[in-house]
TrEMBL record:
It catalyses: [phosphatase 2A protein]-C-terminal L-leucine methyl ester + H2O = [phosphatase 2A protein]-C-terminal L-leucine + methanol + H(+). Residues 203-228 are annotated as: Disordered. Residues 27-310 form the AB hydrolase-1 domain. Its EC number is 3.1.1.-. It comes from the Eukaryota. Pfam families: Abhydrolase_6 (PF12697). Residues 216-228 have a biased composition (Basic and acidic residues). Belongs to the AB hydrolase superfamily. This is Protein phosphatase methylesterase 1. It is an enzyme of class 3 (hydrolase). The gene is PPME1. One of its GO terms (molecular function) is protein methylesterase activity. Demethylates proteins that have been reversibly carboxymethylated. Demethylates PPP2CB (in vitro) and PPP2CA. Binding to PPP2CA displaces the manganese ion and inactivates the enzyme.
């Protein structure tokens, strides 16, 4: 674990990274929206046992333990610049060979980073379960999905249990690490003022039709404080408030991915997720693709060994890394 300081016009931003391994190319891992670098923990153990590589998993701005001056700017351009700045801060003018791997939102940021040539030593690019067509279609229902999630949890264990039972993460081992980076303890339980923002999040959908009298408002505040005491964990980031950036993450992504002039890998939870541009590109052999069935959207958490196998095979096929312990490549049919 390391905090990387990046200088900018307004001062210093601090990015949390988690590292593993000492030799070989760097796999720079970018998580999905609402997740954190900890979502890569189980995958990391799986990949470093198969090939010689180094892992750097980054908490993107507004997520995990990263602290930036403007955590609400989650534009693709800003986050792509962050990735380039962190690489420069860590390695200076001579960065090692790097492969960018991103899941969902992180996959989109990996493509934007590559397209803008912000990491000069880039070897390869991998997107995990993010396709422009299906992502754009899903945006319409995203707010409903977010509204359907619990706003608070009684405990960290309760949050982990919800993530597995809801199918958000289908692997308990990964959920136990990953949810630590997705939720946080509510702040200021003893101070009504300190808890105002979290209280508002808890009750935003309740009692909207009340007359607004003083007694109702007072009772509401008391109920909110009790709720917060009973449910001391909440989400680290309010994803609903990032909606204005969603279009910029995904629009034009397929052609941007296809135009990146380095070896590319696309890992999907289902072949039905392919859009027209990627289908044509795949038929033309412009990238390697592998479908991993029986996975939810968090493919690298649900099936870390299968994802590690696919990534390791990709690295060895392109002679980017050396196998470890007799690892045998498994070349997919597509």
């Amino acid at each position: 674990m390391e905090d990387v300081e990046v200088e900018n016009e307004t001062g210093k931003d601090t990015f949390r990274v988690y590292k593993s391994g000492s030799e070989g190319p760097v796999l720079l891992l970018l998580h999905g929206g609402g997740h954190s670098a900890l979502s890569w923990a189980v995958f990391t153990a799986a990949i470093i046992s198969r090939v010689q590589c180094r892992i750097v998993a980054l908490d993107l701005r507004g997520h995990g333990e990263t602290k930036v001056k403007n955590s609400e700017d989650l534009s693709a351009e800003t986050m792509a610049k962050d990735v380039g700045n962190v690489v420069e801060a860590m390695y200076g003018d001579l960065p090692p060979p790097i492969m960018l791997i991103g899941h969902s939102m992180g996959g989109a940021i990996a493509v934007h980073t590559t397209s803008s040539n912000l990491v000069p030593s880039l070897l390869g690019l991998c997107m995990i379960d993010v396709v422009e067509g299906t992502a754009m279609d899903a945006l319409n229902s995203m707010q409903n999905f977010l509204r359907g999630r619990p706003k608070t949890f009684k405990s960290l264990e309760n949050a982990i249990e919800w993530s597995v039972k809801s199918g958000q993460i289908r692997n308990l081992e990964s959920a136990r690490v990953s949810m630590v980076g997705q939720v946080k303890q509510c702040e200021g339980i003893t101070s009504p003022e300190g808890s105002k923002s979290i209280v508002e999040g808890i009750i935003e959908e309740e009692e909207e039709d009340e007359e607004g009298s003083e007694s109702v408002n007072k009772r509401k505040k008391e109920d909110d404080m009790e709720t917060k005491k009973d449910h001391p964990y909440t989400w680290r980031i309010e994803l609903a408030k990032t909606e204005k950036y969603w279009d910029g993450w995904f629009r034009g992504l397929s052609n941007l991915f296809l135009s990146c002039p380095i070896p590319k890998l696309l890992l999907l939870a289902g072949v039905d997720r392919l859009d027209k541009d990627l289908t044509i590109g795949q038929m033309q052999g412009k990238f390697q693709m592998q479908v991993l069935p029986q996975c939810g959207h968090a493919v690298h958490e649900d099936a870390p060994d299968k994802v590690a196998e696919a990534v390791a095979t990709f690295l060895i096929r392109h002679r980017f890394a050396e196998p470890i312990g007799g690892f045998q490549c498994v070349f997919p049919g597509c």
